[in-house]
Amino acid sequence: MPVRNICCIGAGYVGGPTCSVIAYKCHDIKVTIVDLNQARIDAWNSDNLPIYEPGLDEIVFERRGKNLFFTTDVDGAIQEADLIFVSVNTPTKKSGMGAGMAADLAYVEGATRRIAEVAKSSKIVVEKSTVPCRTAQSMRTILEANSTPGIHFDICSNPEFLAEGTAIKDLLNPDRVLIGALQTPEGIAAQKALAEVYTHWVPADRVITTNLWSSELSKLAANALLAQRISSINALSAICEATGADVDEVAYACGRDSRIGSKFLKASVGFGGSCFQKDILNLVYLSEQLHLPEVAAYWKQVVIMNEYQKKRFVRHIISTLFNTITNKKIAVLGFAFKKDTGDTREAAAITLIKDFIQEHARVAVYDPKVDHEQIFRDLSEPGVIDTRKEVEKHVTICASAYEACHDADAVVLVTEWDEFRDTALDYQKVYDNMHKPAFLFDGRLILDAAKLRQIGFKVSVIGKNELA
Ligand code: NAD
């Protein structure tokens, strides 16, 4: 039976864009995206969508009210649907056993129990959230134990590979769509029904079908491998700075080997985002549970290297500024974890700014997309700096890069927004309004250091030794 009615539980960075694209490409399917968060749903129903992704507005505005709906009526949408995506958050556990490593599956379990309780007909339930391997088994047990007799559930795993900032592009033209299912006649039928939704626009040879567990593990593995490349080039960037090798040249020389490839070999202040660290820690936890300590240690090193890179950058900034940043003004350009998104989860800027505050600096932040309140929330989290007041004493949020850099002792480029490139921002104007010597730290390797040195800046770039 072809799928005619889809419910997506979770209207976040994944559920929202993914299911909006399904509605955009499949006019014969009714898509209802639900969430418990009323404010988020109100935003999805307004002119000001709750997340920023290039191309998202157009798609939502075209289909909303036709075959695309956003509501908090979770039960109603579950009952109507023949296929349900579970696209809820799976953050790293904050407390209890496995804290700091294991995925918190409370939201997945909550959504699964709700499906079992309210469903009045058989459904295909699709794991869209990133979950530890064999979570589908737990979902199956919950569904079977709590549902009305005569109702049958099939479970598919369909992890999402979109990258924030390019979500719509990735969804419209994915490298692959992965669908795992139990290799039983019912499982294979469910897998086929979900594959047919995607083949409305994705070439059939890009739809990969596997068993359930391969699909679940592939998502963790893909993110671990991507993050590992970043940590690998960042580890090399430290050697470059100490030796005079140039990390961009090393990356280019290595990347030209077709076995290595050039993508994801850009050195930086470190990776952020809600997924890489969480998914690697998930893999580490899984390995420990499986009594594979060497495997766990191997993957954990990727996260350790990432933390090291951020701390190394901060230490370099402080030592360059004559070993003290007390009362100095540091302009931080960018707060989002990468360009073209307003998402700040695990953003490097958070770690950096907390360190600057601890060293008694004055920090001025500018980001073109991040909500000002969000910045204060991120910096005020319990920990070293645990009150909003304390953060407000040290941090000013600015309306432009020029305002942030005015009277600054140093500019630290943290997010690679195009508007911070030396072809977009007037660095002469920035320089003229700064204290001298004017320091510039490029944490994303997007600036032409030679050009900026000519203006007069003292420039430091990760992975490059200016004395080389
Ligand atoms: P998110 O926090 O932005 O959204 C999740 C939403 O689910 C929240 O709005 C929350 O209110 C809602 N929710 C939780 N429990 C619910 C319930 N029982 N009923 C209704 N709504 C409920 O999270 P996200 O970034 O969209 O991530 C979702 C999943 O996708 C995670 O497992 C994540 O690891 C994975 N993923 C994320 C990305 C990414 O780039 N963000 C990419 C690939 C995969």
Structural class: alpha/beta
Low-confidence stretches: none
CATH architecture of the largest domain: 3-Layer(aba) Sandwich
Measured by DSSP, the beta-strand proportion falls in 5-15%
The hetero molecules present are:
nicotinamide-adenine-dinucleotide
Mean pLDDT: 96
Name the CATH class of the largest domain. Alpha Beta
Determine Rg (CA atoms, Å): 24 Å
> Spatial order of the strands in the main sheet?
3-2-1-4-5-6-7-8
- The name of the CATH superfamily of the largest domain reads NAD(P)-binding Rossmann-like Domain
Helix content: 40-55%
Overall number of structural domains: 2
Counting DSSP H or I runs of 4 or more residues, the number of helices is: 18
The CATH topology of the largest domain is Rossmann fold
Q: What's the total number of strands?
A: 14
Largest sheet: 8 strands, mixed
Distance between the termini: 66 Å
Shape: globular
Strand and helix map with partners:
Elements: E1 5-9, H1 15-25, E2 30-34, H2 38-44, H3 56-63, E3 68-71, H4 74-80, E4 83-86, H5 106-118, E5 123-127, H6 135-146, E6 153-157, H7 167-172, E7 177-181, H8 185-198, E8 207-211, H9 212-243, H10 247-255, H11 276-289, H12 293-320, E9 329-333, H13 348-358, E10 362-366, H14 372-379, H15 388-394, E11 395-397, H16 401-405, E12 410-413, H17 427-432, E13 439-442, H18 449-455, E14 458-461
Parallel strand pairs: 1-2, 1-4, 2-3, 4-5, 5-6, 7-8, 9-10, 9-12, 10-11, 12-13, 13-14
Antiparallel strand pairs: 6-7
Helix pairs in contact: 1-3, 5-6, 9-11, 9-12, 11-12, 12-13
